[in-house]
C-alpha cells in the first residue's frame, strides 16, 4: 500500500484549497489524515460540562479554553483534542496554531474512541511533552489522569470514578465531568 505523508502546512493548504471541508472531522497524525469518530450526545454533554468546569481559568486569564481545534505537536502531527487548556495570550493565538509548548492540559472525551485515544494519541501527547492529559471514559464512567510525560508514556497515571481532578489550582469533581 502506498501512503502519502503530509506536513501540517500541507494539511492547512488542503483545507484552504477546499480539498478538506470546514465540516470534515479529520486530524493529522504522523503525516496521515485520520477521520475522527462521530460525536454522540453524551460526548457533547461531557465536553460542555468540562468547558463549564474549566471556564473560571479563562475568566481569570490563567488559561484559554480551546475546543476541538488543532494543536500542533510535531511538523507532521496536528490532532484536534476535544479540549485543550492553553497558556493565556491576549491575542488568543490569532497569528498561529497553538503548539505543544502552549498546552497546559489536553482532554479527550471517549465514547467510542478510547483505544485510539490511549494507544495512539496519548503516546504522542507524552512525546510532545504535554504535562497533563485527561481521558474521559464515558463507557466505564472514569476519568483517566496522566501526568509527568516520560518518552511515550506518563510517570503518573490514575483512573478516577469519584473524587476530584485539579489543574492550575482549580478543583473539578469527577462526577461533574461525567454526564
From TrEMBL:
SUPFAM superfamilies given in the database record: Restriction endonuclease-like (SSF52980)
Matches recorded under InterPro entries: Nuclease_put_TT1808, Restrct_endonuc-II-like, Uma2
Domain of life: Bacteria
One of the Pfam families matching this protein, by short name: Uma2
Transmembrane residue ranges: none
Protein name as annotated: Putative restriction endonuclease domain-containing protein
Alphabetical list of CDD domains matching this protein: DUF820-like
